[in-house]
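Subject: Sanity check before I submit

Could someone independently write out the structure tokens for this chain? I want to compare against mine line by line before I put it in a report. The sequence has 157 residues.
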Amino acid sequence: MSAVVSQDIPILRPLRSEDLRRVIEVENAAYEYPWTPGIFRDCLRVGYYCVVVELNGQVIGHGIMSVGVGECHLLNLCVHPDHQGCGLGTTLINYLLDVARWKSARIAFLEVRVSNEKAYRLYRNIGFEEIGIRKNYYPAVNGKREDARILTLELTC
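---
Independent answer below. Compare away.
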């Protein structure tokens, strides 16, 4: 007799090139202005820390982070809309921050659209603080640009 085990616990693992098709699908479902496949390939090529969230064998989220010279920059954090609100974003961010600490980062940075209140609240709940605004940082409708909030978090062991 054999048992079938259901994987109802999310797994975080390194992003592989064969994941890119699904990562792009998740990115397109979540964002009006998604990253292109080329941006993801470049992140893998240059050695950024790239991770996926997998649930029941399906990629449902991803995170991209650069780490160097005592700091990290969370470049892309994404959870498929069907799985948002379940704590996966918090899990993903905390995982990336733990990796950053392990790699001796002392401070974390990220940008978030001023209109993305849901993400902004998530980052603030984790402990990020707003330190400024990047004017016209993100693409927006009708060829316009949207400002980004710059957030930071001091990392401690």
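---
OP: Matches mine. For the report I'm noting this point. The chain has a mean pLDDT of 94.
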